[in-house]
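Q: Start with the shorter request: fold the first protein.
A: Done. Sequence, then structure:
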Amino acid sequence: VSCLLAESRSLGITVRHEVDVASVRWEGGEAVLTCRPCGEEACQLEEAVEGRAAAAAPPASGGEYELRAPFLVASDGVRRTVAAAVEAADRERRWALPGRRFKVTRFEDTSVRVYKTVPFRPPEDWRGDINYSARTAKANFDALPAPGGDYCGVLLIEPEDELTQGLPDVPSARRYFDDLLPMFSPHISDESLQAVIDKPTSRLPQFRYAGPRLHHRNTALLGD
């Protein structure tokens, strides 16, 4: 994501953070998005409604505004706002061949995992253009490069893992990572460990399949 942000800014693209797309409709040749601020608390609530219908969105926090676009590329979050809007629009079509209406198929998550991000800076003699990973009995760890030589690691754990989610302080976190990921622990700063302690876990979105097409009018869906 950080690499995409850097490239976007170099092209003069405006990136808005903590913005939620509350709804989308199509008028003429444009997609019309209703947007609103989405602070950390609201975004965490969005994760909590994973698996519910889009109508179960967090309450509006005020400051709504509209964006109009001649072309929309949607990489939906867990509430699938744009995909749900495409599905609703297809249901209103008076006629369609069997199997040609757009539909989102959701699959039961039989192996639920949550994650925490762990930033670190590898030593100079490590390659900085590849991903690093580790598999253990307790957790999985995957790290991708970010601009400037830093890496963003993702620690994937089970929701019932109270040890990882209940680390009380930096010394305890250091002992935990020394034991779990000894090859990475020396390169995780104390500040990063404190951030890992302070930040709650996040949920991975449930697997879903959208089809039989991934477009609607001037809108394309990614990640489905």
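Q: Next, the second protein, separately.
A: Sequence, then structure:
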Amino acid sequence: GGGLDGNAPPARRLSVTSEEDVEGEGDFVSPREGIFFCTLTPESPHVIVPSALLPNAVTSPYTLTICSAHEVTLVEFPATQASVLSGQWSTEGGGCNLHPTWSSNPKFLLVVEEPGSFKVTLTVDKGAWKRGKSLDEMIGFCVFSSSKPDGKTAPDRKAILHETSYVPMKEVSLDVQLGLEPHPTYVIMPTLYAPNLAGRFTVSVTSEQKFHFSAI
């Protein structure tokens, strides 16, 4: 099991895009303890949100404990707005910009309400990287500006503002500075190094600034 202490009411703002993203919730039957049993899959990270029954009802430290027969890692979100979305690459197209199918990779729309620093993280769940594993599965992503509010523009190498190197790891992240000019809309495009490879991933954005994050 693992534990996490919360000694002060956090100022985090977590974005849940729809009720379909909620995998379950506990019952508010006790003022001292809440218990929730669930079965989770390892394909993507999961978010736990401790809460009281009513807003502004109580201010108190708490302890969050996870009990599982399998290894679990519990990571606390920073005191920022955080949004996590999942996606997958197809067996058709994709790959890095060396391939003509680069523009067919999945895309996510980031709309900035306030200029500032944003941390973007791409995570895949394929187990620990082992020697001899194909470098075709290296991961990376780019961030480019979009003149359209819905972000539905053809990716252009000239429009890329930030991009990672391709790395043989499960996770890669980038701290980027984004503003409101000339457009407050940005597109994040995760890619594998080689095309025609299927895989699941999550993309998270955290910032002290307000933003909206959605799949295109």
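Q: Describe the second briefly.
A: The two ends are 37 Å apart (CA to CA). Residues 132 and 168 are 11 Å apart (CA to CA).
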